[in-house]
Amino acid sequence: MTQSRSSLLSASEAADLCLLLGLCCFLYFWKLGSLPFYERGEGREGLVIWEMIHSGNWILPAVNGEYIPFKPPLFHWLAALVSVLTGRLDEFVIRFPSALMATSGVLLIYCTARRWWDRGAALAASVVLATSFGWWQAATIAQVDMVLSFFIGAALLLFYSLYRSEIDRKRKAIALAILLAFATLAKGPLGLAAPAIVIVSFLLVQRDLRFILRLPLLAGGLAYIAVAGLWYACAYAQGGWAFLQRQVVEETVLTGVGEYGRNQPIYYYLPVIFYDLAPWSFFLPALASFLYQRRNTLAADRLLYPLLWFVVTLGFYSLARGKRGIYMLPVYPALALLFGAWWAKLAAGKEEWSAPARWLGWLYVIVCITSAFGVGYYIAGGAEHLPVLTKKLHSVGVLEMSGADLLAMKYALVALLGLIVFLAWNLRRQAWWPSFAAFAAIAILQLACVRAVYFPHFVAPRTFKPFVAKVSERVAPPVPLVFYHGFDAAVTFYSGRHIPEYEAARATLHLPYFLLMWEEDFQRIGQTNKLALIDISEGEGPALRHHLVLAQPTTSAALVERANPAGKSKGE
């Protein structure tokens, strides 16, 4: 009987993992390479990978032949390896590491929750993570943060296993050191500092800080140095102090104190978490109530560790002055675990948690109905009667939707209304697993619509890819092409060549040569320097601020500056 039950559980777990793998493939890999780069960071990471492939330098490639990369190379190594194996280098390949690590994170959360609690909690936790907007968005863009978040999460979960078990302690400690080394190779010292603070905080709460001394620190330290230290030594040998200045001082220290990056208030991440955890963030008050009621048994229920993981990481990043929404990515696995444990208890019929969950569920139904009405009003042509809404929709490219896109929106709206009715019916009778399936289905439908219908219109005015294709046809090597008072990594990547700055290349330039410059700069100095306008971009870049101009000097004289009222170029 025991053997039969074990086989059945194994089969059910395999089915769950296949289901989750299929879900992740749909959410993360479907149309992964269909959109050109539309965020500034994507072009930067893509250009590093391009340099690795074309220069053969996988340690510290000189990006555009000029500057040191901003981040360590683990993300770039993964994409470059895929490029070598497939013989291609495009948006799909460059975004592939993010999608791969996001999928791995979802499967890891399932396995963890299954081991800690039960199958219901495991499915709930993994689906919450997979369908959260912030996790999905990071899985489909080329940035290093998803790789960092996976290895931070894997390291923290392995430490907890190490702490609770005496079995294979040395082997687990070495594996932990290697995971921390990979996190460091994803985004520098932050990959070690962020999980270390969580681990130390947990041990302080447990009043067991001496546990660290019981670990094989020498073996772990040697493993860490062998993985992360070796690359840092090689990179320092190539780049010297300039390498440390760029990747450690500027990217880590100065970003944290606000000298680099975006300075934001200390509460900045609270609305970010609510937005990026949607739709599940509607239930955060109920989850908080659940955790408070179980405050005396958090450790025994294995809720203390993910709770500290979330709170300490949130506090750590909130204290830094430089903030970006994607920095919160490492907390979502912890929140997913907490949600999984709570929902499993809720579905088991715990009456004290059903009332707040039901009312919050009804709130979400109201929000969905309102959103469906707004979409329907737009499809019916009502947006033109609301000037403020029309202006907003135009700014994000929605007004350009027509034909097949509008038809897809109509079908999605019908499906959404059906899911809302199904959700409302199950909330009324407190059928929590069907309700969870409805929440998940609504989230999947929304993400699919964003990817297939909305994003193409959102991206079109933000990319320079079509413009670069025309430039490449007009200006083929060896004809010189240079940037004037500006640089765009995506433009350089799509051009498939180095595009130096004008000042650096001026001494070697001879007619004919071409300039890439921002429209404002062309208007400022074009007539004075007798520049011929060859073409102008349709897109305005990631921030929707500047058209890019291809210009050709008609004289061999050096370009003469004309005073800029702003005192500097407006280029990005």
Brief synopsis:
By secondary structure, the protein is mostly helical. Helix content is 64%, strand content 4%.
Describe this structure in words.
The structure is a single chain. The protein has 572 residues and is mainly α. It folds into three domains: 2-346, no CATH class; 351-462, no CATH class; 465-553, no CATH class. Helix content is 64%, strand content 4%. It has helices spanning 2-29, 40-55, 74-86, 91-116, 119-131, 133-139, 145-164, 169-187, 190-205, 217-257, 269-276, 284-293, 304-319, 332-347, 351-379, 387-395, 404-428, 432-459, 465-474, 489-495, 502-505, 519-525, and strands at residues 481-484, 514-518, 531-536, 548-553. Strands 1-2-4-3 form a four-stranded mixed β-sheet. Helix 13 packs antiparallel against helix 14 and helix 17 runs antiparallel to helix 18. It is globular and about 80 Å long. The relative contact order is 0.09. Residues 1-8 and 565-572 have low confidence and may be disordered.
How would you summarize the topology of this molecule?
Blueprint: H1 2-29, H2 40-55, H3 74-86, H4 91-116, H5 119-131, H6 133-139, H7 145-164, H8 169-187, H9 190-205, H10 217-257, H11 269-276, H12 284-293, H13 304-319, H14 332-347, H15 351-379, H16 387-395, H17 404-428, H18 432-459, H19 465-474, E1 481-484, H20 489-495, H21 502-505, E2 514-518, H22 519-525, E3 531-536, E4 548-553
Parallel strand pairs: 1-2
Antiparallel strand pairs: 2-4, 3-4
Helix pairs in contact: 1-4, 1-5, 2-3, 2-20, 3-4, 4-5, 4-6, 4-7, 4-14, 5-14, 5-18, 7-8, 7-9, 8-9, 8-10, 9-13, 12-15, 13-14, 15-17, 17-18, 19-20
